């Protein structure tokens, strides 16, 4: 199904008067504070987040999976789903493919389809954390870090192949996330595992097209529970530096030990020009992959404050690639993604409201109370009318979840695809 612009316009009529009143009041208040409201709305309109091809069906856990009816059973249908989200939210203008879960068959047809939805191909993700059918070498004991040269070579070759696939789609970056590590003390030699990883990454990096970037994702644990080769931002940063200027660190919000100060990591990386990509999600305990902003919205705002500061003050850092990396176990995946996009834009908008000049002044005066007041004044502002305005300006929905439900999107998908349709690739 495709969202009909006329129908969407009709659903937008409900609530438009209330929106106008709330927007006018907010714009007036912000204007009095010296904010350029139009510039903020424009920034929100331009902020596009990639949807991962693996997040459009129900994810499940190692204890089971509860399917969601009408899931997309092919890459084409996944692109259609991103198209639906994008029509409503106007902030999901890209898809990120995981290879080999989602290898296109007809590249031109896939590109035309994405184009018809106004969707670009973001980073391509390699997968050396699972053994693929008919592969000669096993990744059970690692991929790029494996003590076996043949296994390392196979993993390097896979990454090079993923870049080739990405090139045919117009992607410009490769994300490498490794599950490599060990489950028990003594199982591996930390130094040789790291050295092998660095050498393998360099082999991949050497083949990277001129205008491509390589993102190195880190994660402290899982699936290995004693050690992980690329366990933290420092290790990723070190490897990115060893590879060269086209290699960057990728921050996934769920890939930190509890209470880690992620906003400080973001700031450090941007200062050094090495924050390449970002995976949004939320968590209570570990890599929970929950809806963005559902558990720690204030932490998300503080992270966005660091991101906005970096985007405004660190020309040495390229514009980061944004992606949602979440899993949906009990919610409709599309509704969950819409909620995540809303939370991202909300934190972004609030961060754009932080009065950086006043904050700097308060910092220099060591006025700790004032510093907090400034941040929290921005955080406590209800910015939802700004998000609505940005969506309406681009032809999206006033209230995406309400529109999704009133247009009966899921019901239509079930009719088209059947109740038992299972997301492909997983
Ligand atoms: C690993 O936990 C991760 O965050 C990486 O980004 C993977 O590519 C993705 O999840 C999907 O498994
Ligand atoms: Mn991730
Ligand atoms: Mn993860």
TrEMBL record:
GO molecular function: isomerase activity
InterPro entries, A to Z: L-rhamnose_isomerase, Xyl_isomerase-like_sf
Superkingdom, natural source: Bacteria
Keywords for this protein: Isomerase, Manganese, Metal-binding
The protein, known as: Sugar isomerase
Organism name: Zobellia barbeyronii
Source organism phylogeny: Bacteria, Pseudomonadati, Bacteroidota, Flavobacteriia, Flavobacteriales
